[in-house]
Write a structure and sequence with these properties.
- The chain has 417 residues and is α+β, with helices and mostly antiparallel strands.
- The chain folds into three domains: 138 residues, Beta-Lactamase (2-Layer Sandwich), CATH 3.30.450; 159 residues, Alpha-Beta Plaits (2-Layer Sandwich); 99 residues, PucR C-terminal helix-turn-helix domain (Arc Repressor Mutant, subunit A).
- The strands form two sheets. Strands 2-1-5-4-3 form a five-stranded antiparallel β-sheet, sandwiched between helices. Strands 7-8-6-9 form a four-stranded antiparallel β-sheet, with helices on both faces.
- The longest helix has 27 residues.
Length: 417
């Protein structure tokens, strides 16, 4: 009798609507069912709810599987097992509240389109029910393909608008706001442009997987994302109460970590521009993000732990200062004295001075960075004062010396290139 139930159940009448589909599968299996796309977004959930869980409730409430759940499944190989298996598999992970589940991938010519999740509860699915679930995954393929097709059309118009914003083609904040509203794109109050740079261009097939990981971060809202050669460019939105340097740095770091861990893809850098309320400043934020990338290439050691334009400090203006120094051929007489001494006596006083100023004149941190004893550092600082006649207790003089050191380094790099 049970076998007949699974054989006689006709799914064809339910394949015009996700909700009807999950309700039909749920009624047949007598278990709650969730249908999600390949991006872990909820497409539909069944009415059947005699067995429920916190994860299911959170998924329904947020329309997406909780980030910590997805992260755990990847780290412990569960997602990999699901992706590699053609048939439904059982998942029982009590640590994150995923007890007694059966899941199956929905595929079309090898491409993963989504997943069906079933909560077994205290009544495990029989072999016939598992086979029925496998057929259901094949039956829903066309409807999900149509869903992606409609999304791709919307994606093209989204990309066109994003490029207009990045290039500053739309000058009015209100006009941009209306276009976002018409596209049903809802933003938090603050926005910034993030840019992630690959060592080399990724395969187009990997673009979607990379973007899925980018959008999976539930601490920020990714309004747009696009690949431009080696760069993944994204418009990121955050609520004012959640927006901070630490939160944005964490977003950048977590995304780069996940792409390496899950996809084996390494971004060389991840940065973001200024944070603005006005949509007509998105192009400025993009330019600022590129400025951070440029600085990281020119001064990799100095900018190593800076990811946001707001934290660049004087480095925002270093190229302007470099051009001014080049134009006037200015030299710092006192630094030239130290340089001559280094060349004559094979010393490193100039480097010591630079590292000392890099570390805000902290002798302990400077000595560690140079791998020398603090006594050795103090001796070198004494010689720097004597030879260069440099007053290291004068803040104004220190700033001037620091700028001269950095612009000199950039000019030297220009000559080498």
């Amino acid at each position: 009798m049970g076998e007949e139930k699974y054989r006689s159940t006709d799914l064809t009448s339910t394949l015009n609507d996700f909700r009807n589909f999950v309700d039909k599968v749920s009624d047949t299996l007598q278990a709650p069912v969730i249908l999600q796309d390949a991006h872990n977004r909820l497409l539909a959930h069944s009415k059947h709810d005699n067995v429920t869980s916190l994860v299911r409730i959170q998924t329904i409430m947020t329309r997406q599987i909780p980030e910590k759940v997805v992260d755990y499944l990847w780290k412990h190989g569960v997602m990999l097992s699901l992706l590699e298996c053609e048939q439904p598999i059982r998942i029982n992970v009590k640590e994150i509240g995923l007890e007694n589940r059966v899941a199956v991938c929905i595929r079309d010519q090898g491409e993963v389109l989504g997943y069906i999740w079933v909560i077994e509860g205290d009544s495990p699915l029989c072999d016939e029910a598992i086979e029925y679930l496998s057929k259901a995954a094949k039956g829903i393929r066309l409807l999900i393909s149509q869903y992606y097709s409609s999304m791709n059309k919307a994606d093209k118009s989204h990309k066109n608008l994003f490029w207009q914003l990045l290039l500053g083609n739309i000058k009015s904040h209100q006009e941009i706001k209306k276009k976002l509203y018409d596209m049903n794109i809802h933003s938090y109050k603050l926005c910034t442009v993030a840019v992630f740079r690959l060592l080399e261009e990724a395969e187009t097939t990997l673009h979607h997987q990379i973007m899925d990981l980018l959008r999976s971060n539930q601490q920020v809202k990714v309004l747009f994302d696009i690949f431009n050669g080696k760069d993944l460019i994204a418009l990121v939105s955050m609520a004012p109460e959640k927006c901070s340097v630490q939160a944005l740095d964490r977003f950048v770091g977590q995304f780069m970590h996940l792409t390496k861990e899950r996809l084996g893809i390494s971004f060389t850098e991840g940065v973001y521009g200024g944070v603005y309320e006005e949509y007509n400043k998105i192009d400025l934020s993009y330019v600022e993000a590129l400025t951070v990338l440029d600085m990281k290439e020119q001064l990799p050691r100095e900018i190593e732990e800076i990811w946001g334009y707001g934290n660049l400090g004087m480095y925002k203006y270093i190229n302007i200062l470099k051009e001014a120094r080049k134009k006037h051929d200015g030299k710092n007489f006192f630094l030239e004295r130290i340089c001559e001494y280094d060349n004559k006596h094979n010393q490193q006083l100039l480097k010591t001075l630079e590292i000392y100023l890099d570390h805000d004149c902290n002798t302990f941190e400077t000595a560690n960075a140079l791998y020398i004893h603090t006594n050795t550092l103090n001796y070198r600082l004494k010689r720097i004062r004597e030879i260069g006649d440099i007053p290291l207790n004068d803040f104004n003089q220190k700033i001037g010396i620091y700028i001269d050191l950095k612009t000199k380094k950039l000019l030297k790099e220009d000559q080498l290139n």
